[in-house]
Amino acid sequence: MTREQFVHNLKVQTSDSAVMSASQNLRQPPGRNPTQRSIALSIWFNGLSPSDQEMLQKALGEAAQLAVFSFLCILDGVSVIDDPSDRGDLVLTYSSKSGGTLLLNNPDEELLHDQYNYLCQTET
Fold first, then answer.
1. Residue 112 φ then ψ, to 5°
2. 97-122 tens-digit pLDDT
3. 12: helix, coil or strand?
4. Is 82's pLDDT higher than 90?
């Protein structure tokens, strides 16, 4: 796996998947006994005009992408989640079954959040 493949796969499995699932759940709540909240959201969503539904789906996409982008900023070390006086480094490695290891959030290479942001901008 390369860093680019990691970012692409991460996007597909997180933000893209979250938007698709949320959209499906809004149209028709999942399960045999959906929650009242899910039912209420579905009634509201299905009552929207098609253009308003499309705008909401775009907003869901923006929110999902921002969440993943923010998480990658943390992994890249440009946003902190710990005490600044005792700041550590997050290290994300990929270990292949063949024994190879790749430092995914290598600070000497293009940052993951920048790669992700570029990918989001070019795919929409």
1. -60, -40
2. 998 999 999 999 999 999 999 999 98
3. helix
4. no
